[in-house]
């Protein structure tokens, strides 16, 4: 099956007026900012976009992305598969004032001169959904961290010294005078 590639630039207002849908893929190699964060870039992102105009007259894009990204685990430095399936709702705007007036439901998508860089927008949405520190779950990671024994050494309670003990001795010396 031949996969349809998402266009690089579109007129989002025309798409919204006609309530068009776009389905296709974007290659990870076409996203240079995202590729810098990936362990491997030989995959694609499946994209579904719905354009329209809501009851308030706001042009919008509602989208869903689906990708399996191969990141590098920051604990063991091995490949880490991160499945991403974010949904988003964007309000199409031409100016910063329009962006500030959008309801909370929408994040702004700035269309410059009636054109929207669709691949960059998709790349931004993926980057926003990346984990801050990619890493496997503790059980699945090759690096095993030793957890401190909360019961003391070999199950025996260890008496901890009080760091404020010195203060109590000074207080007692003050009473002796």
Question: Roughly what percent helix?
Answer: 10-25%
Beta fraction: 25-35%
Largest sheet, strands/sense/barrel: 6 strands, mixed
For the terminal residues, how far apart are their CA atoms? Answer: 93 Å
The number of domains is: 1
The count of β-strands is 8
Number of helices: 5
Low-pLDDT parts are none
Pattern of helices and strands: EHEHEEEEHEEHH
Structural class of the secondary elements?
Answer: alpha+beta
**Globular, elongated, flat, extended or rod-shaped: what is the shape?**
elongated
Query: What value does the Rg take, in angstroms?
Result: 27 Å
Q: Overall pLDDT, averaged?
A: 84
Topology:
Blueprint: E1 9-10, H1 12-17, E2 21-27, H2 32-35, E3 44-53, E4 59-72, E5 79-84, E6 87-93, H3 96-100, E7 107-110, E8 116-117, H4 118-128, H5 165-176
Parallel strand pairs: 6-7
Antiparallel strand pairs: 1-8, 2-3, 3-4, 4-5, 4-6
Describe the structure.
The protein has 177 residues and is an alpha+beta fold. Helices cover 21% and strands 29% of the residues. The chain is built from 5 helices and 8 strands. The chain starts with 8 loop residues before the first strand and ends with a helix. The model has no long low-confidence stretch (mean pLDDT 84).
Could you list some keywords that capture this structure?
six-stranded mixed β-sheet; alpha+beta; 21% helix; 177 residues; 8 strands
């Amino acid at each position: 099956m031949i996969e349809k590639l998402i266009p690089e630039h579109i007129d989002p207002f025309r798409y919204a007026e006609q309530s068009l849908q776009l389905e296709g893929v974007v290659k990870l190699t076409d996203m240079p900012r995202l590729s810098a964060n990936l362990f491997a870039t030989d995959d694609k992102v499946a994209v579904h976009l719905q354009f329209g105009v809501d009851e308030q007259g706001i042009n919008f894009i509602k989208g869903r992305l689906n990708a399996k990204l191969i990141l590098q685990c920051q604990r063991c430095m091995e490949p880490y598969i991160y499945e991403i399936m974010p949904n988003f709702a964007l309000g199409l705007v031409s100016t910063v004032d329009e962006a500030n007036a959008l309801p909370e439901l929408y994040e702004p998508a700035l269309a410059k001169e009636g054109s929207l860089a669709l691949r960059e927008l998709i790349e931004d949405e993926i980057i926003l959904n990346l984990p801050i520190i990619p890493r496997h779950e503790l059980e699945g990671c090759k690096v095993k961290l030793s957890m401190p024994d909360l019961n003391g050494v070999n199950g025996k309670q260890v008496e901890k010294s009080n760091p404020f003990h010195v203060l109590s001795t000074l207080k007692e010396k003050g009473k002796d005078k």
